[in-house]
Amino acid sequence: MPTKEPNTLEKAEKKFGKEKLAELKAQYNGRNLNIIAVEDKMAVLMPLTAKALSNYTRRLIDPDGGIDIAAKELINELWIAGDDVIRDDEEYFISAMTEIQNIIELKKSSFTKL
């Protein structure tokens, strides 16, 4: 019988420690932390804030910005702990950059006028 591959949370608990992750989560009033895994490297990011989202959006539309710069700034703004190679090495960063959209789209809402 094949062994079950650990999920990202299990890997994060092993890397950072279950207690440390619980301590970090408590610092943000129990809001979920965001964990990005790229191969064997991991990063723990604080929950998305309205300010961080606003900064990200502003950098997206800035003529000197773009998705790469916006994602880099967002990762840096939310960074709590992890392997710096995710921020510093382009190959790892490109993979992490694709996960930024998942963080932003975590909660969906709808709007309707009556």
Content-based structural category: alpha+beta
Number of strands: 3
**Unreliable runs:** none
Strand line-up in the sheet with most strands: 1-2-3
- Average the pLDDT over all residues and give the rounded result: 88
Large-scale geometry: globular
Count of helical regions: 6
Q: Roughly what percent helix?
A: 40-55%
Order of helices and strands: HHEEHHEHH
Strand content: 5-15%
Biggest sheet: strands, sense, closure? 3 strands, antiparallel
Q: What is the CA–CA distance across the termini? A: 56 Å
Radius of gyration: 16 Å
Q: What does it look like?
A:
This protein is an alpha+beta fold and 114 residues long. Helices cover 54% and strands 12% of the residues. The chain contains six helices and three strands, in the order ααββααβαα. The protein has a three-stranded antiparallel beta sheet, sandwiched between helices.
